[in-house]
Amino acid sequence: MIKFPESFLWGGATAANQLEGAFDRDGKGLSVADVMPGGKDRFKILTSEEFNWELADARIYPNHRGIEHYDHFKEDIALFGEMGFKCYRFSIAWSRIFPQGDELEPNEAGLKFYDQVIDECLKHGIEPVVTISHYEMPLNLAKKYGGWKNRELINFYERYAETVLSRYHNKVKYWMTFNEINSASHVPALSQGLVKSNGAKDYTNVAQAWHNQFVASAKAVQFAHALNPELQVGCMIIYGTTYSMDSNPINEMATIIENQEFNYYCADVQVRGKYPAYTKRFLSSKGVNFSDLEIAEGDLALLETNTVDYIGFSYYMSAVIDVTQETPETVGGNLMGGVRNPFLKQSDWGWQIDPEGLRIAMNNLYNRYNVPLFIVENGLGAHDEVDENGYVEDDYRISYLRDHIEAIGRALEDGVDVMGYTPWGCIDLVSASTGEMSKRYGFIYVDLDDEGNGTLNRSKKKSFDWYKQVIATNGEDLG
User: Fold this and answer.
1) How many CA atoms lie within 13 A of 192 on its CB side?
2) What are the distances in angstroms from CA 51 to CA 45, 54, 208, 255, 372?
3) Which positions are catalytic residues (predicted)?
4) Largest separation between any pair of C-alpha atoms in the chain
5) Rounded to 10 degrees, what is the CA torsion of 158, 159, 164, 170?
6) Helix, strand or coil, per DSSP, at residue 352
7) pLDDT beyond 70 at 334
8) In terms of DSSP bridges, do strands 310-314 and 232-238 run parallel, antiparallel, or are they unpaired?
């Protein structure tokens, strides 16, 4: 029997731009997410030459409505409480607090909304876990300032982070500075506000944006620890366990490089406090001279002395590297895909299902960094068939989550320090990768389709009661 720590934080995770809706209410400004269109071509549009952060009449924007959590948050959090959540990971929408991003004073209506969300969590005995920036920077900062390649954003983020930390630090212990910061390797639009029309074509801008984010994150850590040394501030990365296709040394070296450049680069800086030895080689391979980056006096010392307390990470799938074949069979994934692994099954969206890969990820991360780990995203996006009562018999989701929880238990036995587990999209919400409702992750079904039709009624899936039992038994009863 696997024993989870008594303090283990079971819960669920969401992001403001994918469920709140109310995109233009109570003083909220537009965010970059608000102009990202819905549909399977979302990333194709975002990475096109012509995309320029403008709304287009011919496109749809499902996140403008989300699942109307802005009006239903009490109902939703009550359902989380019924499941027994120990924690709830959510994000604060930056443009609710600073609508344009560069104001001197915050929007009080936005702060009051999160006062209510946090108080509602605490009412139900749920520990809030807050992501400060989750793919929703104010649109003005991307359009007027050119996104995170501009060093001025450090000051804007610092003002925002200090505002929310000061407001909520007596009620919120756990924080993360940037969601999936390494996602910029593939789609810098999400976390850096960079598309081809404002700098994404030049990887120097991506590298500079990362540096500016590292500095901004370190400033947030510094401020939080000055407020209260007990506050826990983490970084947050995508982790995709990556295997060499075979024992060919060429593939093995390519796998090492892929792991360094995607899985470890951002964490190396934020956890170890300095740029890793492979930085110059990595950036040089992208046509970037590290010495050309704007690194101000004091930046490196700031990074070294204000490292994060833990690593939050998302894990959905693993990847395989094969650079020896010209046309290998490939599969998709969470921003990163790879060569098809013949040993694994795939989700409805082609993501390879690999629970043992989560155990490998946890061992790799913990033994590399020796700081606590927090699995803040994991789950199965699937087509759910709902009956007339709103019930979904989602045994496939239960199977996926059970296998991954068992892998966490094995990692605990390996000696890994794991803080908690918050499956992604604990209530159905708009997909980040496609802007669809039909790619569902939740324990709670929301009656809304890809065209925006539906009652928005919430109903419990079979996985709701299953996860409730998992939490109640602290992982001992996995069904």
Assistant:
1) 32
2) 7, 7, 21, 32, 39
3) 377 (nucleophile)
4) 63
5) 80
6) strand
7) no
8) parallel
Q: Under CATH, domain 9-472 is a member of which superfamily?
A: Glycosidases (3.20.20.80)
Is residue 117 over pLDDT 80? yes
User: Which residue type sits at 370?
Assistant: N
Q: How far apart are CA 225 and CA 248, in angstroms?
A: 47
Residue written as tokens 């590298």?
A: 207
Q: Rounded to an integer, what distance in angstroms lies between the CA atom of residue 371 and that of residue 365?
A: 9
Q: Quickly count: other Cβ atoms within 10 Å of residue 117's Cβ.
A: 24
Q: Which residue has the tokens 């850096």?
A: 192
Residue pair 466/399 in contact by the 8 Å Cβ criterion = no
Residue 132 vs residues 57, 128, 136, 164, 369: alpha-carbon distances, Å: 31, 12, 10, 8, 23
Measured between alpha carbons, how far is 358 from 425 in angstroms, rounded to an integer? Answer: 18
Burial of residue 457, with CB atoms counted within 10 A of its CB: 0-12 exposed, 13-18 middle, 19 or more buried: exposed
Q: Encoding tokens for residue 42?
A: 């979302």
User: What residue type is 42 in one-letter code?
Assistant: R
Beta strands, E only, 307-415 = 310-314, 319-321, 330-331, 338-339, 345-346, 352-353, 373-377
The answer on pLDDT for 326 being more than 90 is no
Residues known to be catalytic: 377
Cα 163 from Cα 193, distance rounded (Å)? 22
Backbone angles phi, psi at 338, to 5 degrees: 160, -170
Residue 333 has pLDDT above 80, yes or no: no
| Rounded Cα–Cα distance for residues 447 and 469 (Å) | 25
Residue-range domain boundaries for the chain = 9-472
- b (16+ CB within 10 A) / e for 51-65: bebeeeeeeebbbbb
Which residue type sits at 305?
Answer: T
SS percent in the chain: helix, strand, coil, step 5: 40, 15, 45
pLDDT of residue 248: 97
Q: What is the tens place of the pLDDT at every residue in 351-380?
A: 899 999 999 999 999 999 999 999 999 999
